[in-house]
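Request: Mind sharing a record?
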Amino acid sequence: MKKLKRISVLILAIIFALALASCGAVETERGNEIKAKCEAMVEALIAGDENAAYAIFPKEMDRNEFGKSFPKLKSYVEGVETFELTQTGWYTGMENGVSYYKATFNMSTNKGNFTIEAMEVEGYDGIYNFRIINNNEYENYTGTITKMQGASPFQWGLIVFSALCLGFVVWMLVDCIKRKMKYKVLWIFLILCGAFVFTVNLGQNGTNFNATIAVMLFSYSYLQVYAAGAAILKLTLPAGAVAYLIARKKFTIPEKAEAEYTLAEGAPTEEASTHSEENAENAEERENTEN
């Protein structure tokens, strides 16, 4: 059990270190390679050079389809004269046996801030996917805790649901702390940080759905509606707390086995202490008799 506690503490320390490392700008070697291609892409968009922009993508990309999307991409950077890219995130994964790397950048310009997302896929030369988002169009929105003015009843309902989920997590946490059970440290971590997160992005380019198992200290559900027409629906379920509620009886230490479990931990029970005192008294009586 002591070894398990050490492992639990080590896991918590690693997660805390990763959380600190994720703050601020993030730069990777592969991200810098994509950054250079994104900079070339932005320069081509500013200059209106369709051929230069097309050369950044894999040769497999349909030339006619790219030509149709180029004017829209170019419109995002109209009036931009100076810009600077800073990597803010990255994600790597594998789909259908093919690995990919996705990098996110913040682009500061004289016309405001933009977000650029670019992806490279194994087996393709160049940027496989490029997306630019004008952050200025997404400053006005409702639906989060800090911006609920003018929110709809459904948006308020999600906030209330989040409050109920938070109360449930606190309830399960207190129950776990008070209850004598196995693997208590791991259960506390699971209750606080285990969650299922479902995200739906509703934008002009279509609908994107994403479901993840997240490790997070606190997350809440909301419907974020932007004045530009886009929306983000995020539903967070306290899966760790629910798992604890279902399995807590199985891992609870029975009262009859409590003395045995305590001895296994190395701490003497009241019964063991009594026997020790009786043995000491008997030894002292035998010594006096011999004398």
User: Anything to note?
Assistant: Residues 172 and 178 are 10 Å apart (CA to CA). The radius of gyration is 29 Å. The first strand starts at residue 83 and ends at 95. Residues 153-254 form one domain.
